[in-house]
Fold these 2 entries.
Entry 1:
Amino acid sequence: MLCQECGQRPATLHFTKYVNGEKTELHICEACAREKGELIPGSSSGFSIHNLLSGLMDFDPVGLSGAKAQAQTLRCEGCGMTYGQFSKLGRFGCARCYKQFAERLDPLLKRVHGNTVHVGKVPKRAGGLVRLRREIDGLKREMQSRIEGEDFESAADLRDRIRELEREVQNG
Amino acid sequence: MGNRKYTAEALSPWMKGEAPDRDVVLSSRVRIARNLRHLPFPMMASAAQSVEAMERLLQVGESGRLSGLGEVSSVRLTELSELEKQVLVEKHLISPALANHAQHGALMLGPGEDISLMVNEEDHLRIQCLHAGFQLKETWDTASKIDDIFEEAVDYAFDEKHGFLTSCPTNVGTGIRASVMMHLPALVMTGQINRILSAVTQVGLAVRGVYGEGSEATGNLFQVSNQITLGQSESEIIDHLHAVARQIIEHEKAARARLMSDSRLKVEDRVKRSFGILSYAAMIDAKEASQRLSDLRLGVHLGLLPEVDEGMLNELLVSIQPGFLQQAYGEALDSDQRDMTRAQMISSRLATHA
Ligand SMILES: [Zn+2]
Ligand SMILES: [Zn+2]
């Protein structure tokens, strides 16, 4: 299979990319991938799948120039990184960047992952509240379906359990 | 790092011995990216903050919490020579980014070299586990346990919506990259590989052909990994990769069986010619060497080369890399010397094992 960018070297990197919500296959050679990812630190030596994927995050493919320029100067209070720097480097500077640039982040995450919300592992300590809230959400869904099935008695038990958990959340 | 056996031997202990589906899958790997909550990620950290991150993470290793893994050695990257770093990269124990760019980088290594914990690479902590053959789930279990141990001791950067926060948005969420290294010579020979690669990318996985010194894929080695880290749970990611890799294995096995029934003589001729060239060549470049070693590996699994030991082939794949050649011969080599040294190394190994 030849590289679809240059049409000369054999393609050795194969992956997909979301363009306007549609999955698109890409088959390219390492040289072309490097060219696309040349702003990525560390890509000069030892090119990895990870370098490749991060080279393909499109930052604001379209956008009004005024709003775009304004966004570039948005600065993270945690580490001092600007959105402009982030879009050049493709790397966040600290955990707070995720909050500071939140507004611009979802479309980017959607293009990379096709999703914007984590569903995996939750840390036991740092994520204690998260676990509780997820459990509450699950119980509420369960309660709803029992009500629909007219199983009011067990729905009431669930309601009590939900109240208990909500108290725990409030007490931190 | 004690007696430096990590850099002296080409084959890590975990590579030795029997492993499931070893005839097609060389290794399974899981990498987890994590960051400390209250410190900037390594790229934006000050020198003092990088030292703090390093000490806090090394402390977990030295506290005995990891003792269940056996004796874990830690080393700060500044204690290693350039050549030692290159050798660790060639053994896939550290990434090129850690070797070349890290400020206050460090490494914790399990005794079997199946566990390597990188500190201050792109993220504060990169947990990497390697298993021989096709053992993705086992590899994930090991990595996840180590993750739990660190989580008891340090606060991770995590938010409810985005999950584990990483420097690069391509890792956010679960922070895991799982991959299998596959040897697919029969799919390449029978011209089916393009169809397979296309099908694999369609289901959200990425494939990378593995290079020799140039930029062309050589040796018929392919690394298949998950592309998405956000919006799927770890077990969904692992199960999906596992299921797709299982199908590729079956296709490769079927293609090998067909080669043996339809064109056994041609395959045998190719394998034995490669054996002859590797046994007697005076010079060989990395590309030709990996291609011919691929033929030998196929020959061994088709029962055409009963005298060749597969473990020795795995060892050769690593020891013909430039850093290893140079280390074995003690001084810097130019490219002719490298090709000569490579040829000698291969022929002497084949002579003692065949
Ligand atoms: Zn190209
Ligand atoms: Zn920040």
Entry 2:
Amino acid sequence: MKERRRYPRGPRTIALAGGKGGVGKTFISANLAVAIAEAGFRVIAIDTDLEGANLHTWLGVRESSNTLADFVSGREDSLESLLVGTDFENLRLIPATQGHLTHAQPGSERRQKLLKAVQNLDCDLVILDCGAGTHASNVDYFSVSDVAILIIRPEPTSVENAYNFLRSAIFRKMELAMLKPEVQACVREAMDQRNDLGVRTPANLHPLVRSIDPQEARRFNKVLRDFSPQIIINEVLTAEDVRLGFSISEVCKRFFGVDADYLGYISNDEKIRQALRKGAPIVASMPEADASIYLNRVARKLLKQIEWR
Amino acid sequence: MIPGTSSHYEILGVSPDATDEDISRAYHLALETYSESSLAVYSLYDDDELLTLRNKIEEAYRVLSSHQERSTYDSQYEGVSQDESPLNAVTAIEKLQPEVARETGELTPLGVEDELPFNGAGLRRARLERGITLNRISEVTRIGLTHLENLEEDNHEALPASVYVRGFVAGYARCIGIPQERVITDYMAAIRKSQLDPIKRKRSKQ
Ligand SMILES: Nc1ncnc2c1ncn2[C@@H]1O[C@H](COP(=O)(O)OP(=O)(O)OP(=O)(O)O)[C@@H](O)[C@H]1O
Ligand SMILES: [Mg+2]
């Protein structure tokens, strides 16, 4: 067996988010995880959606008694003990359960602990399926991952929520990258979308930061330059839907100042539901299906883009 | 190239050494992206902003798609240092703001503001002369109306920290089309002066 462990310093992380509920985040997380595992990489998929956990269902895994909710609530301090196997050789899962509403989302400290523990997992790639909404934990997973993928459906509500989510992620990245408390405070104020400071985009924030500290302003530019979220358009029906990805990428550059890469699109395919009912991810159970072909394409492109340490 | 505006290359999002094909592709993508019914701009740009963007895109394409016009343009463009703001592309407000000054028709500056320091009253005079309402400035800059009112009334105590005020003054100046740097210098000096003034300080504490 070939040595697949590419880097001793922890796995690469991929987060899938989108702001909007029901756009296909979990379906895509599950199938990319399977496709990448089948390519020989050792993958761990983590269900971070403690309110609507169903990554296990997409992967055909039964509900487990130990879940991420135990880690989040502090009952469990090791992620390893939460790992469960799947039907796929290189793929393991850290499931979540539904209904832990008291500890629905980890607080900031627990979140940092979780991200650190993820870095110590023994695998090549970690896939984080995020829940809907712009809760701080979703934004954090997305902001600190090596690859941040926005899932968008070709409809106004999904586009709106995706932009909103992206905006939060950019400002959060800024907040984390800025060193001066004064600048951090300024970023936090601007984060509020309804701020009356005239800050609509990161570009508007830049002059403010520069007037506080030019060095921070340079750091600010670097963060923007280095952030390259990826876009997947899901449930594509028409050529316009396909082209939407290019347009969104163009708008991300112009409005937010980030180079968002159009990773690919996945067709609207009724076979996805059939596969779900059978409890078998479509890329494995129906590799010939239209959606599987697109999913595999996306997986291949993704693997090419990942910079292995 | 006028400082504070984007080059035709930036408008189309291509590099200055773009081929004809690059330019044509970028133009068609931009037209589709910023069309009125475009899904890709949903919730980010309003109709006025889209129209402005499309006009700029058309103008950029008109120049860059003609070899002759492009080389004339290039010779002017050469040597102009790039803005150090994070975006070389057109950003929502900053680049659109001078449009407001223009939308109010020919300016009618009497030149008075050149002789006056730009404190709050000076700002208001310059604004009124151009027939621009505070509401309109607030709409375009997204700076809260209350902040703008405090700015004009020299109500310094009610304004937030000076970094923000700088931004407000800059946005205000850009929006109505008066020299930004001078206005900032004047206004910030006025604030410092009022902070030193013991009578004013005492009054504000009451
Ligand atoms: N490409 C597609 N074609 C057809 N149906 C799809 C497609 N993608 C997703 N669906 C359907 O949309 C539904 C929602 O998918 P999924 O659960 O992956 O969304 P989600 O973004 O994870 O939702 P949540 O925000 O609730 O976590 C599923 O029932 C799935 O069958
Ligand atoms: Mg989900």
